[in-house]
Amino acid sequence: MADIGILGGTFDPIHYGHLIIAEESRLKFGLEKVIFVTAGDPPHKQDYTVSDAEHRYAMTVLATETNPFFECSRMEIERPGPSYTVDTILAFQEMVGQGTGIYLITGADAVLEIPTWHQPERLLSLCKLITATRPGCDLAELEKRVPAEYLERIIFLEVPGIYISSTDLRARVQQSRSIRYMVPDAVEQYVARRQLYR
Ligand code: ATP
Ligand code: MG
Q1: Is the minimum distance from the CB of 184 to ligand 1 under 6 angstroms?
Q2: What is the pLDDT averaged over residues 16-44?
Q3: I want to staple 3 with a disulfide (CB 3.0 to 4.6 A). Which of 46, 82, 89, 101 is the partner?
């Protein structure tokens, strides 16, 4: 069996930046599929009120349904307590078996936080870490700030730059500005219908 990719995120809301790093990783590393894991109780997002997990999961399903190689997982939503990526990777490893490699897909900003992750050593021993370029995140800066023992195990992936963040999308909706063409149409409609981020 081919390797699989895992893309974890708050997805509040999911946008084209997420979809592009998933697809580019899939193609580059010949992944059988990419599983989008919606965070339940994200330990690093205590600074604003994250939308209900069911809304974030629903948008992730809508955004990924046209790609037969994309799947969505409720694992972190249903697991009680804080969502640690290491637990998620362990659970997927158990499901797919030792013969299947796991690639954890992240953006460059997430990697800056590696030292604050739960059991980073163990996590990096369980999976390969893909770090996609992200506009606004300077790779040279990253090389200065991330310890060498982590850096040497990261696979950097250059992707077409998408200068979109969920934070900016939430602000746009709040200010009644358009998010069209930044998220799939179905996600834009979901946000409008459920009056998210107002
Ligand atoms: P927020 O602004 O709320 O933090 P976000 O846009 O960063 O939202 P997340 O759900 O935090 O989205 O991101 C999930 C993963 O996707 C992270 O690893 C993040 O680095 C990556 N990512 C998000 N947007 C992009 C982008 N535009 N380009 C590259 N990677 C991205
Ligand atoms: Mg983020």
Answers
A1: no
A2: 92
A3: 101
Of the bound ligands, which one is closest to the alpha carbon of residue 137?
1
Task: Write down the domain spans for the chain.
Answer: 4-194
Question: 4-194: which CATH architecture?
Answer: 3-Layer(aba) Sandwich (3.40)
pLDDT digits 0-9 by tens, 91-100: 999 999 999 9
| Separation of CA 117 and ligand 2 centre (Å) | 14
Percent of the chain at pLDDT exceeding 70: 96
Length of the chain: 198
Is the CB of residue 167 below 6 angstroms from any atom belonging to ligand 1? yes
Contact assessment for residue 36 and residue 60, using Cβ atoms and an 8 Å cutoff: yes
Could you give the angle at the alpha carbon of 28 between the alpha carbons of 26 and 31, nearest 5°?
35
Q: Token pair of 93, please? A: 């490893």
Q: Is the CB of 18 under 6 A from ligand 1?
A: yes
Query: Where do the H-state alpha helices sit in 65-161?
Result: 75-78, 85-96, 108-111, 120-126, 139-145, 148-151
